[in-house]
Automatic annotation (TrEMBL):
Classification lineage: unclassified sequences, metagenomes, ecological metagenomes
Organism, as annotated: marine sediment metagenome
SUPFAM superfamilies assigned to the protein according to its UniProt record, in alphabetical order: Periplasmic binding protein-like II
Name of protein: ABC transporter substrate-binding protein
């Protein structure tokens, strides 16, 4: 089993609840990304950072 850690304060600020699906995660990532003066200030989601992403994303899309 896997867990997704998230910043509740960022989600609250954006009017979002915790995502339950990949599609919800993708939509939340768009809303949570912050740019100022054309520069990235905050990324909505970083799947490769400390996530064990090979396994996490493989399982999320039906791998065993």
């Amino acid at each position: 089993e896997r867990a997704l850690y998230y910043r509740k304060d960022f989600f609250d600020e954006a009017g979002l609840s915790a995502p339950a699906t990949i599609a919800e995660t993708d939509a939340a990532a768009e809303k949570l990304t912050v740019r100022e003066a054309g520069k990235l200030q905050r990324m909505g989601f970083v799947p490769w950072w400390n996530q064990g992403w090979h396994y996490t994303w493989g399982w999320a899309f039906g791998g065993e």
